[in-house]
């Protein structure tokens, strides 16, 4: 495991010769084939990713932004409805999970699962992933267990299947049905609407790959952003000085007409403190602690002065990287957004290191644009409407780390802030 930023930047660079290690196979979800992330063959991975990526780029970014805005408004409505119903103390962590699952399902196939509106974990997906994610992460690190766990016969017997009546299997079927409908009938999507599946079909992604990659995007897009958002909210609630500075920046921005309703992506760039909170939140609550190992090229490599033989799996340790005192200073363990203020070289370098949490180069996260849109907007949209307070300060939540994280009982007291508009 390494947390040396320069080595990680070098591994991600185009000509490093590093490839995905076999750990990635543990991310396989469907016994019938690989998703883009579990595909370890570099040429196949690159070719496949090239067809998926345009859905997240160019003119599509504006469409992604519209959907993010719609779901942020839905989240605000849902929180407001709970307050009106006398439930001002709520599990904000679960509300954010519902929001994210609805956003991602709407982005993928144009149909949200309706978790937020029904206040229900449809398909039992979230409950199931609390069990499934730790299991996948644990097996992923044990080569023998991984080989068994990811073999098609094992997955067919014990893994999620589209014939299941709940959990991951059922959502795989929902996605599979949609793909089949679109390919067979060449309809299914209302005229004038937009979604990622539609973009992929236009880019020549075959039906089975559409299915496997849609199934991947639900956990890839929900386990991650949700962690950052929940974590940053907790950090803000526990740091009154930062909380009120952020509120003040939002208040001033609204009063000066620099923040529309909802805030635009363009406007978020002008909010220096908000940007600093997002970076600092992503740093301390990095959604992925470790994983995504790369294989040392056959000639071997020298890492931090030590020769590492070819074929060794090298794991980025994001958790330690984000708390590295050489990069972030002696208070690296503290939540201090101020470290990201200004335009110094240090700030630019720290930002570059935080960005490593998305991977880089050919390995970069496909959903980075969506995640950035969300992270830059959500705190403005929440704090312009509400105030948040930890409901159980002695134990604000329960959190378990498995490479990614499981969080429960994030009880928060939420009150309306009607002073901003
Ligand atoms: C703060 C939020 C997020 C973080 C920190 C994050 C981080 C990562 C990381 C570290 C990887 C693997 C990089 C590697 O292989 O070295 C990855 C891959 C991926 N992410 Fe994200 N992610 C986030 C949000 C999202 C979202 C919102 C989506 C979907 C909308 C998404 C979709 C994907 C996909 C599809 C891949 C596989 C890319 C490939 O195989 O090349 N991620 N992400």
Automatic annotation (TrEMBL):
Residues the record lists as binding heme: 365
InterPro entries associated with the record: Cyt_P450, Cyt_P450_E_grp-I, Cyt_P450_sf, Cytochrome_P450_monoxygenase
Keyword Membrane: no
Keyword annotations from UniProtKB, A to Z: Heme, Iron, Metal-binding, Monooxygenase, Oxidoreductase
Gene Ontology molecular function, alphabetical: heme binding; iron ion binding; monooxygenase activity; oxidoreductase activity, acting on paired donors, with incorporation or reduction of molecular oxygen
Cofactor names: heme
Claim: Lyase is one of the keywords in the record: no
Domain of life: Eukaryota
Coiled-coil stretches: none
Family recorded in the similarity comment: Belongs to the cytochrome P450 family.
PANTHER family: CYTOCHROME P450 (PTHR24305), CYTOCHROME P450 MONOOXYGENASE (PTHR24305:SF77)
Listed name of the protein: Cytochrome P450
């Amino acid at each position: 495991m390494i947390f040396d930023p320069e080595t990680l930047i070098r591994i991600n660079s185009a000509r490093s010769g590093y490839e995905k290690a076999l750990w990635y196979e543990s991310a396989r979800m469907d016994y019938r084939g690989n998703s883009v992330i579990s595909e370890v063959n570099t040429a196949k991975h690159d070719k496949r990713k090239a067809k998926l990526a345009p859905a997240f780029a160019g003119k599509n970014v504006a469409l992604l932004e519209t959907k993010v805005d719609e779901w942020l408004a839905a989240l605000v409505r849902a929180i407001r409805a709970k307050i009106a119903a006398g439930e001002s103390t709520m599990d904000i962590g679960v509300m954010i999970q519902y929001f994210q699952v609805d956003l991602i399902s709407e982005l993928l196939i144009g149909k949200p699962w309706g978790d937020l509106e029904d206040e229900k974990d449809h398909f039992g997906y979230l409950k199931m992933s609390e069990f499934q994610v730790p299991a996948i992460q644990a097996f992923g690190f044990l080569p023998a267990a991984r080989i068994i766990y990811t073999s098609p016969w094992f997955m067919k017997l014990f893994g999620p299947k589209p014939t299941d009546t709940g959990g991951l299997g059922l959502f795989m079927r929902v996605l599979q049905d949609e793909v089949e409908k679109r390919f067979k009938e060449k309809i299914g999507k209302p005229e004038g609407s937009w979604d990622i599946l539609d973009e992929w079909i236009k880019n020549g992604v075959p039906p089975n790959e559409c299915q496997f990659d849609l199934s991947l995007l639900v956990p890839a897009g929900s386990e991650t952003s949700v962690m950052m958002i929940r974590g940053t909210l907790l950090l803000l609630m526990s740091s009154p000085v930062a909380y009120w500075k952020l509120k003040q920046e939002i208040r001033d921005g609204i009063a000066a007409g620099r923040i529309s309703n909802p805030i635009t992506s363009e406007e978020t760039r002008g909010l220096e403190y908000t940007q600093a909170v997002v970076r600092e939140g992503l740093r301390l609550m990095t959604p992925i602690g470790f994983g995504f190992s790369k294989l040392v090229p056959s000639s071997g490599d020298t890492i931090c002065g030590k020769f590492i033989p070819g074929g060794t799996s090298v794991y980025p340790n994001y958790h330690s990287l984000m708390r590295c005192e050489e990069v972030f200073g002696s208070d690296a363990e503290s939540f201090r957004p101020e470290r990201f203020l200004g335009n110094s070289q240090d700030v630019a370098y720290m930002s570059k290191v935080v960005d490593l949490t998305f991977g880089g180069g050919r390995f970069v996260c496909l959903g980075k644009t969506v995640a950035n849109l969300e992270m830059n907007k959500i705190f403005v949209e929440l704090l312009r409407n509400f105030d948040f307070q930890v409901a159980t300060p002695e134990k604000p939540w329960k959190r378990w780390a498995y490479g990614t994280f499981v969080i429960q009982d994030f009880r928060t007291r939420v009150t309306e802030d009607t002073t901003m508009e």
